[in-house]
């Protein structure tokens, strides 16, 4: 297997005196979809925030394509090739769908490629093309998630991190978003996905890590984890 695109070793992080991550180790290889699953408060979102530079790690290393990025500022992490789609979408009120999407490309200067990528987003999510002049915050929850993911795509990342893809969405919308992620991955996009719905996470990913109390409790192929009776009993309620 190729060298990891992203590698974390012994990463600890938190908020002030409250430590949330305790020696996190994980890897993401090029072309993979890797899921992080676990209960609320397990540290999944904190982990993405630490990778993207919103939080500074207290210890450990974060390597992306062979370069250390632990402690780098968010704009430097984005320039390195990592886009973070945050929980809650965080779209800008008063700006259109198109403007919100274009903000994802604000560090880019390749205007023709930006135009092509915008068309790619519209092809992936046709409803955004129809509503590109509408205030993005007036879209439905699922449509806002499409816009948030599209904004991440517009930075042309080599690693796309998505926090809570399905939160608050209907099963049909989750299915539609899952199909879009599968198409992105088939085209070569590497994805790190935080997902509280464990079955959805396993369905969408090649590998998964189970996070408990800020630590990696289990890791492996998603299909194997889904068949593991101890995982089913603890996380799938079946």
Protein architecture, described:
- Helix 3 (97-103) packs parallel to helix 6.
- This protein has a single domain (30-55, 72-236), classed as 3-Layer(aba) Sandwich (Rossmann fold), CATH 3.40.50.
- A hairpin with a 2-residue loop joins strand 4 and strand 5 (67-68).
- A six-stranded mixed β-sheet has the order 6-7-8-3-9-10, with helices on both faces.
- The model has no long low-confidence stretch (mean pLDDT 92).
- The protein has 238 residues and is of the alpha/beta class.
- The radius of gyration is 17 Å and the shape is globular.
- The protein has helices at 44-51, 74-80, 97-103, 111-124, 126-130, 141-153, 171-186, 198-204, 222-227, 229-236; strands spanning 6-15, 18-28, 33-37, 59-64, 67-68, 82-85, 159-163, 190-194, 207-212, 215-221.
Produce the secondary structure layout.
Blueprint: E1 6-15, E2 18-28, E3 33-37, H1 44-51, E4 59-64, E5 67-68, H2 74-80, E6 82-85, H3 97-103, H4 111-124, H5 126-130, H6 141-153, E7 159-163, H7 171-186, E8 190-194, H8 198-204, E9 207-212, E10 215-221, H9 222-227, H10 229-236
Helix pairs in contact: 3-6
